[in-house]
Structure formats: structure tokens, C-alpha cells
Amino acid sequence: xxxxxxxxxxxxxxxxLEAMLPFxxxxxxxxxxxxxxxxxxxxxxxxxREQIAQAxxxxxxxxxxxxxxxxxxxxxxxxxxxxxxxxxxTIEHASIAxxxxxxxxxxxSLQSIGVSKEGVMTPAQLESIFANQSPDLISIMHGNNExxxxxxxxxxxEQCKALNVKLHTDxxxxxxxxxxxxxxxxxxxxxxxxxxxxGPKGCGALIYAKQNQLHPMLYGGxxxxxxxxxxxxxxxxxxxxxxxxxxxxxxxxxxxxxxxxRQHLETKLSTIPGMTIFGHGVDRLPNTTQFSIDxxxxxxxxxxxxxxxxxxxxxxxxANNSKSSSKVIIxxxxxxxxxxxxxxxxxxxxxxxxxxAHFFDTLLSLVNTL
Length: 370
Fold this sequence. Notes:
This protein is of the alpha/beta class.
């Protein structure tokens, strides 16, 4: 199989698995226990926290381990006090968009921030949110999971700070693919995920500036600074730490490799009549191409490619059970027919130019048939 869906999840790196194995067998202690086995587990958690802190330019005590990007996003939004206000972009992942709707039903004021045809939030669109009453919290994803379009979070954070507005960013797709510095971005809260960077599933983190008040969603234990009750998943956290360390040291190599693959693919795609490459011409993740072809159903094309042994996506993996068109593409101003044609290719560190060529040849053959 040729796997081209690395924004959905990545294969576990062998070096990450090697780091995890002792904590799935020999070192099984509870990190809250005071005896030797517990201290070994606690030390492993501390090491992972340091590895992640170094990878995203923050301090270990600003990291709260969670079960993944979705829980981190929920924890961030849960920091809002009652009767406050929230603004989110129209291209957010479902793990932001759906809890935002729940908060709205609970009395939180909710505003939406639009994006341009290229998928970028413009200064004018941001200013419109501040025009009347500024929200208490804004949540804007760093890099879009479908189009790969990157938002200028540093600029947005400067505007927010001038008005004393808190800013959260979901960096699940950017962390490990481009330089992501919590301190340089200037955000108050940032979500990251393990399984997007060749780490294990079921592990993520929320990074927060200490002046922000967080409210736990789980109670019954003092773990994670009393902000996330429950015995820590030590093996997964160890794997996350190792994956973050590798992503940090190999960042430039991975960036260059996946960007070359993307450029080769998009050069070939541009020869197909009726082709649209979303976000083309603006800053995007180096590994991501989302495109549509006129009069070609994306879901049908995906299944045909699967039959040929090629795995791609028609959008967010978290929404693939839904038959609706891509909300991201529609939010960018495209018609539903274009959104229904969308196919996402997301490269990983182990993909090759030969796989790109094979994918394109297969795609072209299927398009001519369909």
C-alpha cells in the first residue's frame, strides 16, 4: 500500500516504539507511587515533558498531558468562565467547532471569523470581530488539516494582546512539520498531538501560559498540576516525548523532503483540466495538497484509489463518516460541488518520489475512466 494520508495519522516510528517498550513491560509502576517503580515512571514523564518543551520552546511546567488533540482543545475552551464570549474561525477542526456550539447552548456568546478564498484569515476579518465587543477568547488553528494553509498566528496574537484577548491555537498539524515556538507565537494556549508526528495515538498536550486560569474537566486525582485527573499513560507519554525529540532534530530534513514531494505532485496535477489546488500560492504545510477535479466525485475517486492500493483522504479523518461536503472548502467560498470533489494528499517522511509518480499515473488513469 502507498500511504498518503499522514495528516490523519502517522506510522509509529521504530525508535519511538523502542523507547516505549520498557514502560509496557518492565517499568509498569504508577508515577504517583513513591517506591522505586513509581519513581522510574515519574522520571520518564519528566523527561518526556522536557523533550516536548524543548521542541516547542516552552518550559516543562507549562505542559499538561492529555489523551490527544481533541481533549487538549476541549480543555482550552473549558477555560472560559460562564457568560463570556468566544470567537472561532470557520475552518476549525470539529474538536473546536462542535464544543463551541455546546458552549453556545450553555450561554457563551459565539462569533465566527471567516477566511479568504485562499483559506487565510485577513486583518479585516479579524478586525471585524474586535469592532463591537472583543471576545474573551479566540481559537484559530495554526495549520489547516485539510488544505494545509497556515495562519499568521504571531500577527493575530499581537492584535489580541493589544485588546487583552486570550488566544488559543490548535497546532496539531503544524507541530513537527514546521518550526512551532510557543513563546514566539505569543499565544496563551496551544494544542499538540502525538500521533501526527510518528508517536502513539491517545496522547497529546495542552501548553499554556501560567497567567491563564484552566479548569479541569476530569476530577478525582492530583495528576498534571491537578488539571487532568487520572493515572498518566506513561508508555504513550514516553513515546510522545521521543517523537517530539526526533521531530525537533529532524525538522529541516523532513520539511525539505515532503515539500519536494508536494512540489512534484502539484506540477503534475496542474496538467489535468478542471484542476483546483486549494490554498495554492499562500503559506501551507510542506506535506499537504488538497485538490478537486471538475465533475469528479471525491469519495468515488478515493475508493477507486483504495482499490489500487493507495490511501488518500477526502478531508478530515474525524469527519469521514459524514456524507456532507467539506465545511472547510465551503467556508473558503467554493460551491458544494467543488467541495464534494476534494481529495487530500498528505506526505510523510518515508514517502518517495516513485510513490508520487505512481499515484499520479493511477489518478490520471482513473480520472480518464470516470
